[in-house]
Write a structure and sequence with these properties.
homodimer, BirA Bifunctional Protein, domain 2, 3 domains, nine-stranded mixed sheet, 31% helix, globular
Amino acid sequence: MTAEKTESTYEKVVELAKRRGFFWPSFSIYGGEAGFYDYGPLGVMLKDNIIRIWKEAYLRENALLIDTPVLVPRAVFQASGHVDKFLDIAAECDKCHLRQKLETFTKSAGYEEVFDTVESGLSFVRDNVVKCTNCGTRITRVYDVRQMFFLPDQGSSGDLFLRPETAQGIFINFKILNNLFRGKLPMAVAQTGKGFRNEIAPRQSLIRMREFNMCEVEVFVHPEKKFWAEIEYEDDITICPRSSQPVTLNAREAVNSGIISSNAMGYFITLTQQILLKMGISRDRLRFRQHEKNELAHYSFDSWDAEAELDGNWIEITGIADRNDLRNHEKTSGESMSVSTEEGDIVPSVIEPASGVDRIVLSVLMHSLKTRENGYTVLSLPPDVAPYHAAVFPLMKKNGMDQLARKIFRSLSLNDPCVFYDESGSIGKRYARQDEVGTPYCITIDGASLEDGTVTIRERDSAKQIRIAAEELINHGLIGNPSISLDKFKNQPS
Amino acid sequence: MTAEKTESTYEKVVELAKRRGFFWPSFSIYGGEAGFYDYGPLGVMLKDNIIRIWKEAYLRENALLIDTPVLVPRAVFQASGHVDKFLDIAAECDKCHLRQKLETFTKSAGYEEVFDTVESGLSFVRDNVVKCTNCGTRITRVYDVRQMFFLPDQGSSGDLFLRPETAQGIFINFKILNNLFRGKLPMAVAQTGKGFRNEIAPRQSLIRMREFNMCEVEVFVHPEKKFWAEIEYEDDITICPRSSQPVTLNAREAVNSGIISSNAMGYFITLTQQILLKMGISRDRLRFRQHEKNELAHYSFDSWDAEAELDGNWIEITGIADRNDLRNHEKTSGESMSVSTEEGDIVPSVIEPASGVDRIVLSVLMHSLKTRENGYTVLSLPPDVAPYHAAVFPLMKKNGMDQLARKIFRSLSLNDPCVFYDESGSIGKRYARQDEVGTPYCITIDGASLEDGTVTIRERDSAKQIRIAAEELINHGLIGNPSISLDKFKNQPS
């Protein structure tokens, strides 16, 4: 079995996702809408497992959870700067009317510039010849587009926006949350939910959507110390600092040598790596890259991206930003955002590890896609990330094998509803179907099962089998059951 | 300990919710917005547990999960009838400009009428004297208000709406889902997510919000048989049929006697009761009431509401509706919605159990609120619904008790992150704090723990304690551990 790293992995995953029910384009019976995707039955289970791993990791850091509305009144995004600054600088071809970000046109023409105002864009297209990527006409029309979806004048609610990030819902509740946390610092607050951006050009299915899923954490720290906790993980991390060569170091070394600017930034970079690996991202296809100065969002003054390698490109899946949002809300709302410490009152700084759930789902699928020597596809997902933890099959639909199989299936389902039952088609075909969607174990009830109560368990990646008592399975479950530890599959015939 | 059924339960819960972090009004630092609430740390955990119970129950019914966008293009809601029919008939006082649903004004004046067009409302206020509930001026101005939030002309996406229900996302994917289900019927599809309604008058915190959480299931059945599966639950249900007296029957009896119109309707009424009881709704404060003809939504021709008694009022928390949506989408989209069966091609009917998560959260809190003889509050939540499964305390912060307590806490957290550690304040105060938020077990590390490795476990409702080995806890967890079954607390001194 070899890992797939060819250019076609993305297309293979998108085809598999649609055929087996991980995800597909939304609203297809009405012609579809760019930038919207549905998660199907297997996709919801995979996505929910990914979110659960994130949530459990942060609960273990004593993070507080919160869930705030996606509809947000103007005052919040006025204070945060999003109303004035969260804009795309776009351009439209006068002839064929293709609309794209101005940077998409200029990059195709070989320019490296980044634009944050209409003026800078207009001045650039006056001084340089930038041609339409579609028809070759020279670009002259430059304008700005609000990235937030906007609902003007909604009766008593006034102007509403759909949030482009969940973070502001945490910042504006900082004092309430800190009181619940008994006034202590540092404090972490975590939120998962939907975000919305009216992208000019949505693309690549789950990579750039108009409606997407986020997992964000705001870590409030002393602004000078920026300390969370001693860094205990000693995992090597591939680090790409701004304006210097990539290095491989653990987070403690990177902080001590000044490559990473603070303990909190280093702590959450290495925690992010732990979480992503647990979700099924490949270690050798993950790196942490520091933003260039001109890449930084309007609210951030240092930022590192966890990037996954997908078909040869590095794609951001988590960003760890050093932000300073509380002062804006303090100024605009007039409410204090300070915390009393032994050294006096301070307004905390914020370290924000923010993940794009959909990009992680896609990356996990692409990193998990393997091909067996016989050409069959295997999704090598971590067992507790896989949509189904196990499938149960009767070898044949006769002699009582199917009755016993259904009985074992029902017993397993009582403890773990993520078990699948299948009695249709040859046993080889049923194994192949489960391999393709990442089910780590297949349990088969055969003739011997009827006599001695044992069943076979086949492990997905090795395709090897062991035989154990059905009772053992029912009493101890599948994931983490020592009787079916992976070692036992090693010496079995395949 | 006595159950609270006084008028003040709602106010007590809202006060507790804000003070301890279950939920509170959103955007308070900017003056707030009616109809929007934040879930705080304890509320997110409670809400997520409630959603998990629903999801596991439907996975055991072999339901398919799906997750579709909240932003939906016009074509979908044009076909479903929501664009034309999902309107509130409102009225505004000419003098004081109070705006309410017309029915709110007419009900205050003692009328029973229900209005579904502006014309019927105008004609009513011409023929009857309806006065403003605020200033007494006669009402003459009647108009309609779109209940859906609307985003006109969003670039390439055209008109978008925020969904008022998750159901349409399932209907428009019916063929894709049924293909994944190998063309079989009956088939159930479940979706949880946010819904949005631009309510004229949001009220009572989680009861009527502009942005809310739903758990919806669409059960596709043969349109004549409407059969899901044999009804095995024999639980008594309080049933209030349209135009006749309430009865207590199990679902099978109610279907056989024709009180409930189909097997599928009866099956999902009794399953809904099972699920709500598991979530912590009190059996004696739950009933199922059939809609009056004039109450039915535009898409429904029979409907039963699961209602919870809250401070003497019966509030809908789940609706089980018999719908016929697929034909509308077949007609408008031109895509077939039929399924091949042995008896020919049919378009399935739909039975929809749809739950308002926020209303369930509020009802569970209100039904769980108890007061001890000493006046202290206890939230008597089911153990696996409670935000924390356990709290760990050192009896005192000295002699190594706190080190051992932290060690036990860390071991427990590895298996179950919903454990809380507290070492501040008297032990009585710490017990009271956990009782108030529903933590079923408190584990205390005392002097004896240092010598023999045992700890005390105190059970919330009885306030009684037993002593067991810490190892036993760490190896077997709390929920479902036979060593700490509730029977063991019965004969202990309190």
